[in-house]
Amino acid sequence: MRLSSIALFASTATAISFSGSSIVTNYFSRRDGHNKCPAIWNTISKDLTSRFLANGQCNPDARAAIRAIFHDCGAWNTAQGAKGGCDGSLAIAPGEIDRSENKGLANIIAMLKNMANTYNVGVADMIVFAGNHAIVTCPGGPRVQTYIGRTDSTTPAPNGLLPDVNADPAALSRLFTDKGFSDRDLAALLGAHSTSNQFHFDTSTANVGASQDSTPGVWDVKYYSETLNPPKGIVVFPSDSKLAQYKGVGKEFNGFVNNAGKWNGKFADAMAKMALFGSGNTKNMADCTDSLPKTTNAKRELKAINPFMPRY
Ligand code: HEM
User: Fold this and answer.
1) Which domain holds residue 252?
2) What are the catalytic residues?
3) Total-model pTM
4) Is any ligand 1 atom within 6 A of the Cβ of residue 195?
5) pLDDT at position 298, please?
6) Which of 70, 103, 168 to mutate to test the pocket of ligand 1 (most atoms within 8 A of CB)?
7) What are 67-84's pLDDT values in tens digits?
8) Which residue CA neighbors atom 2 of ligand 1 most closely?
9) Residues 256-294: pLDDT tens digits?
10) Are 108 and 309 in contact (CB under 8 A)?
C-alpha cells in the first residue's frame, strides 16, 4: 500500500496504521491502544535540556540533533512502508554514519548512542526524542508530537534517499514527494535551517561555521526572508535558494516569510509525520510528547491543547 495514498493526520492526536485501508483512529480509541509513556523519558528530557540549552538559546549539539533526526528518519520513502525510517540505523548500521551526506553527525550520534545505553532505551527512539527536544529547546520552537517504541535496526538505510545540496529543484521536490510530503511540508521542513550552521558544504575559511540565517540560536522565520535576500555573512545552500523559487514549494516558502505562526504549525505537523517513518503502527507506541519541555511559543501551545482529547 502506498503511504502517499493515505490521508496522514499528523496533528496532535492521531494514530496511524498500515493495516487495512483506513488509518484514522479517533481520540478515544487511541487512548485505549496506547501505552503510557515510561517515566524515564522525563529524566532523559532534563538531561537533554542541560545539553542543548546555553545562554537561553539552542546550542551546536541541539542543531546537530535536529539534523540527525532528519538523517535517520528521512532516509526513507513510502515504498519501504513499515520498515527503515526512524530505526537508529544511522547510529548502529555499519558504515551509514560514514556516508558523505552524514558528515558532521558522528559526535552527536555517539552522544545519543551513549545516552540510549545509559538509560536503557532504544537508539532510534533516542534520536527522535532528542531531535524533537532540540526543536522545542530553541526559543520559539514548537513541541512536536513524539511517540516512543520503535525497533532498532542494523540494516543500513538505502542510498540516495537524503537530499543533495546541489541537486536540481525538481529532483529534490520528487525526493520529498516520494516520502509522502506535500510542497507545503517541504517548504516548512526547510525552515529547520533557521538554526543551522554549515561546516562541510562551503569549506572556505571565512565560511566554515557560517549560519543560514542571522539568528541560529533561535527558532524564527528569518531564514525565509534571508534565503531570498541574504545579509552579509549568511551562507545560502543552493538547494534552499532553488526550492525557494520552485513552483508550489516556492509559493509555500514565500508564504512563511514573516509568518512565524503559520510556519511553526506546519513544521510541527510535517515533523511529527517524519518521526513516524518506518513505524507501521502507533498502537503499541507511547505518546511521550508531554515529556518534552513546554514550548516558549505561546500560540502553538494553545493550538496543541485539543479539548476533545483526554489528557493522561
Ligand atoms: C533539500 C533538503 C535539504 C538539504 C539539501 C540539506 C542540506 C544541508 C546541508 C548541506 C547542511 C550543512 C551540513 C554541514 O556542512 O555541516 C545542512 C545542515 C542542517 N540541516 Fe539540512 N538539508 C535539507 C533539509 C533539512 C531538513 C528537512 C532538516 C530538518 C528537519 C534539516 C536540518 C538541518 C540542520 C538543523 C542543519 C544544521 C546542523 C548543524 O548546525 O550542525 N535539513 N543541511
Assistant:
1) 169-262
2) 71
3) 0.88
4) yes
5) 58
6) 70
7) 999 999 999 999 999 999
8) 163
9) 999 999 999 999 999 999 999 999 889 899 999 999 999
10) no
